[in-house]
Every structure is written in structure tokens, then in C-alpha cells.
């Protein structure tokens, strides 16, 4: 059973500190009900994909603690998930019924068997592959060799990062309903409305400049970091160096190492351009940074100063994050005032046609007319079908085990959402969350 001790200690401690002297059991029980729903889902999660399980657990911790918590990713055993579920039931119950217990050292006892993250220093000093990488940066990017040697001498190998990117031992079946429920919840919807209200001017300006609806920008930030509440606690230089030179065995290992070496180079160039200490940058185990979780190459290509302070800061400046998300989508082809998704009629013939047309391709490559001619019906009462027959579309399949697969029509803007994260599930979750936030704010 492996988990970072500091993560769980701080999470539990924050829960106690937040509630120790407050007579607000209703609020605590509400947070607890959301938390326990997620831990039940996690306990029933029939997968060995630690990345999926750890992301659910981080959501649990954020829901239990409005305070900002570290985002150290976890490797989790099923035994531990059941233990966590029982522990959090007791934490919630005891905090409500006996506030004095919150002042005790209970939380220390709860984590007495939990271990620190594994890191290994001195792994990248005087290593041939690293030296070759340094040579490339010296020759092509005009870096100082001694400076880079010093940086990599201080960079450490992250065992946790290597474990989390490793392919799972068994491949879990895709589950759209479980995935959707993680993001279409009261925490992201209610906080999305609050985020929109607090940043309405920046969102309106971004929408006007880039043509991207406010709710889409809000939903992306909500899915990525719950509006900046967990941006990651991995030192980016360590994670990218680990993935660039010590990516775990996988069929695509060589390609992934090349990708992460490019990201590592972009990180060092970005730090130099912005006069930032590269060791000061923290984010996800995969190297994503800030409120919108941009990789270093995306920061250099798409991040903008949207607040007018002549700096780009995606970690602390919400306006920069909002503008950068809008710019990213526009640069990838977002079409202003165009739909994202159309719903398909539930009749059997339409569903069969959709099933045959779902080929997994992320770009619109079919004409809508081709499907209409063979009987596909669209469930969009306001759609003027005659003006859209030549519109390029794709069929999005959203499977759930032991349930009929859900199909929808994706347009160009849906395809653009997959450029942020190359997953139909991700893009559709962003769309569904955006619609829920918009409806909640209207009401």
C-alpha cells in the first residue's frame, strides 16, 4: 500500500483545522456525503489504472477540504481504498459529534503506516543521455553548459511519476457514465458558477476576442484543476527529466521519451525567457502547469498576458489562465458561434447508423448529409437541417460496460476540444459541464 504521507497528513489535518471549533454539522455532512459518494465509487472501481484512481482520490480530498491541498499523485491498493472510506466516515462523524477530537493527534495516528514519495538524487549528473541533451541545448538554443550541468546535478528521479505513467497491468473497460459523474457534480457546477461570477469581466473579454463561449473556458478550468484548487505538487523539472530519460517500459516508450525531452527543453527555455528559477515550477506528474494545466510547449505557444501586467503567470493570475485557454482553442480552429455537439435521436435505426459511423477519428470527416440520407435522425428541434447538410461531422461513441453505448454528433468545435486532451470522454465531459454551469448560473 503506497501513498505520500505528507499528502494525507495535510489533507486530514486541514479537515480538522477547518472544522475544529465550528458548529456547522450540516455543512460538514454535506461535504461528507459528496466525499463518501466518491470513495464508494473508488472502492468499487474495478481497474488497476492508478492514474484514474488517484485522480478520483484527489477530487475526494478537495471536496473534503476547501483549503488548497497538494496534488501528489498516488499509487493505491484496493485494501487502502476501503480503509480510506472507513477512515473518512469516522473523521466526518467524530468531527461533527465531538469537536474536541479535532484538537487531538488522531490524524497522526491515521497515517502512521503511510510512506513518503520515493525520489532518487544524483541520477542525472554525468549521464551520457543527459550530456547529449545538454549539448543540443547549448548548440541550438545558446544555453550555458555549466548552468545546465548544475541544474541536472540537482534534479532528482521521481519514482512516483514513473509508476503513475506506467501502463496498467490490466486494461479497464471504458466507462462513460463513471467518467461523466466525476466531473458533472455539484462541486464543479457550483464552484463553476462562482468562478464565472468572480471573473465575469475577463471571461466576457476572452469570449469577445477569441469567440469561445465563457462556459467552455470555465468548464475546462473546472475539469483540469477545480478552478485552480489543485494544480499539482510535483516539481516539474524532476517529472519531465524522469519521463524524458527514465520512462517506464511501454510499447510507445521511445516516442514518449522524445515527447518529454521536447517538453523538458521547452521548460528550460520558458524559464529562461521569463527569468524564472526552473526549480520553482510545480504541477502534475505529467508536467502540466497552472490553473489550465498547460504543458511547457503549450505555454510558449499559446499562453498570453491577459491581465496587462507584462508577465505570463498561469499559476497565480486567473486572467492569464482564462485568456490562454481562449487563445489555445482559437489557435486550434475554434469556430465562433458554431455548435459543439448535436444529439442523435434514440430510435433504433439512428443508433445503428451511429454505431457503424463511429470509427474513433477525432476530426470531422463525414458529411452530415451522408447520414441523413440513410435515415439518421437528429434530436435538435432548433436545428435548420437544410443549411447544415454539407457540415463535416464525426460520430462520438461513449461506451459504458453493460449499458447501451451513447452516441452523439461532434462538430469542428468538439474536435478542437480534443486538442486540449485527446479523449472523446474528456471533450464531452467539458461540454456537459459547460452546459450544466450555464444552466445553473441562469437559474
Please identify, by name, the CATH architecture of the largest domain. Orthogonal Bundle
Strand order of the largest sheet: 5-8-7-6
Biggest beta-sheet profile: 4 strands, antiparallel
**Rg (CA only):** 23 Å
Determine the mean pLDDT. 81
Order of helices and strands: HHHHHEHHEHHHHHEHHEHHEHEHEEHH
Give your account of this protein's structure.
The protein is mostly helical and 443 residues long. It has three domains: 5-110; 128-165 and 230-331, Bacterial muramidase (Helicase, Ruva Protein, domain 3); 341-410, no CATH class. It has 20 helices and eight strands. A four-stranded antiparallel beta sheet has the order 5-8-7-6, sandwiched between helices. The chain has a two-stranded antiparallel sheet with strand order 1-2. A hairpin with a 7-residue loop joins strand 7 (392-398) and strand 8. The protein is globular and about 65 Å long. The chain crosses the membrane at residues 80-102. Residues 127-435 form the Transglycosylase SLT domain. It comes from Candidatus Pandoraea novymonadis. It holds the Pfam family SLT_2.
Topology (elements, then pairings):
Blueprint: H1 5-19, H2 25-43, H3 50-64, H4 78-97, H5 106-110, E1 119-120, H6 128-141, H7 145-154, E2 157-158, H8 159-165, H9 176-183, H10 186-198, H11 200-210, H12 214-225, E3 234-235, H13 236-245, H14 253-273, E4 282-283, H15 296-302, H16 318-331, E5 341-343, H17 348-357, E6 366-367, H18 368-373, E7 392-398, E8 406-410, H19 412-420, H20 424-442
Antiparallel strand pairs: 1-2, 3-4, 5-8, 6-7, 7-8
Helix pairs in contact: 2-3, 2-4, 6-7, 9-20, 10-12, 10-20, 11-16, 12-16, 12-20, 13-14, 14-15, 15-16, 19-20
Amino acid at each position: 500500500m503506497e501513498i505520500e504521507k505528507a499528502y494525507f497528513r495535510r489533507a486530514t489535518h486541514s479537515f480538522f483545522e477547518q472544522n475544529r471549533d465550528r458548529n456547522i454539522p450540516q455543512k460538514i455532512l454535506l461535504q461528507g456525503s459528496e466525499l463518501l459518494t466518491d470513495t464508494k465509487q473508488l472502492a468499487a472501481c474495478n481497474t488497476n489504472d492508478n492514474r484514474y484512481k488517484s485522480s478520483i482520490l484527489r477530487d475526494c480530498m478537495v471536496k473534503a477540504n476547501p483549503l488548497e491541498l497538494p496534488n501528489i499523485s498516488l499509487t493505491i491498493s484496493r485494501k487502502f481504498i476501503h480503509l480510506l472510506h472507513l477512515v473518512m466516515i469516522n473523521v466526518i462523524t467524530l468531527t461533527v459529534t465531538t469537536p474536541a477530537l479535532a484538537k487531538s493527534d488522531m490524524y497522526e495516528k491515521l497515517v502512521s503506516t503511510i510512506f513518503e514519495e520515493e525520489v532518487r538524487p544524483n541520477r542525472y549528473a554525468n549521464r551520457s543521455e543527459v550530456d547529449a541533451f545538454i549539448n543540443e541545448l547549448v548548440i541550438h538554443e545558446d544555453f550555458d553548459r555549466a548552468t545546465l550541468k548544475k541544474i541536472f546535478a540537482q534534479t532528482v528521479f521521481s519514482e512516483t511519476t514513473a509508476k503513475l505513467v506506467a501502463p496498467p497491468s490490466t486494461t479497464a473497460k471504458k466507462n462513460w457514465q463513471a467518467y461523466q459523474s466525476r466531473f458533472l457534480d455539484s462541486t464543479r457546477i457550483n464552484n463553476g458558477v462562482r468562478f464565472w461570477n468572480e471573473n465575469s469581466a475577463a471571461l466576457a473579454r476572452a469570449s469577445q476576442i477569441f469567440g469561445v463561449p465563457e462556459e467552455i473556458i470555465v468548464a475546462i478550468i473546472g475539469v483540469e484543476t477545480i478552478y485552480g484548487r489543485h494544480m499539482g505538487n510535483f516539481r516539474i523539472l524532476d517529472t519531465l527529466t524522469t519521463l524524458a530519460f527514465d520512462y517506464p517500459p511501454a510499447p510507445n516508450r521511445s516516442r514518449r521519451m522524445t515527447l518529454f525531452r521536447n517538453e523538458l527543453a521547452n521548460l528550460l527555455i520558458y524559464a529562461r525567457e521569463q527569468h524564472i528559477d526552473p526549480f520553482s515550477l510545480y504541477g502534475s506528474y505529467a508536467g502540466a502547469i497552472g490553473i489550465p494545466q498547460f504543458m511547457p510547449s503549450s505555454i510558449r505557444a499559446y499562453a498570453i498576458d491577459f491581465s496587462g501586467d507584462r508577465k505570463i503567470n498561469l499559476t497565480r493570475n486567473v486572467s492569464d489562465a482564462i485568456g490562454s485557454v481562449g487563445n489555445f482553442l482559437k489557435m486550434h480552429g475554434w469556430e465562433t458561434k458554431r455548435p459543439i455537439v448535436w444529439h442523435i435521436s434514440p430510435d433504433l435505426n439512428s443508433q445503428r447508423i451511429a454505431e457503424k459511423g463511429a470509427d474513433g477519428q477525432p476530426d470531422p470527416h463525414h458529411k452530415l448529409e451522408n447520414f441523413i440520407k440513410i435515415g439518421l435522425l437528429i434530436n435538435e428541434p432548433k436545428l435548420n437541417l437544410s443549411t447544415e447538410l454539407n457540415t463535416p461531422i464525426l460520430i462520438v461513441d461513449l461506451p459504458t460496460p453493460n449499458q447501451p453505448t451513447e452516441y452523439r454528433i461532434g462538430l469542428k468545435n468538439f474536435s478542437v476540444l480534443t486538442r486540449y486532451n485527446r479523449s472523446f470522454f474528456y471533450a464531452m465531459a467539458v461540454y456537459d459541464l459547460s452546459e450544466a454551469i450555464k444552466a445553473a448560473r441562469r437559474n
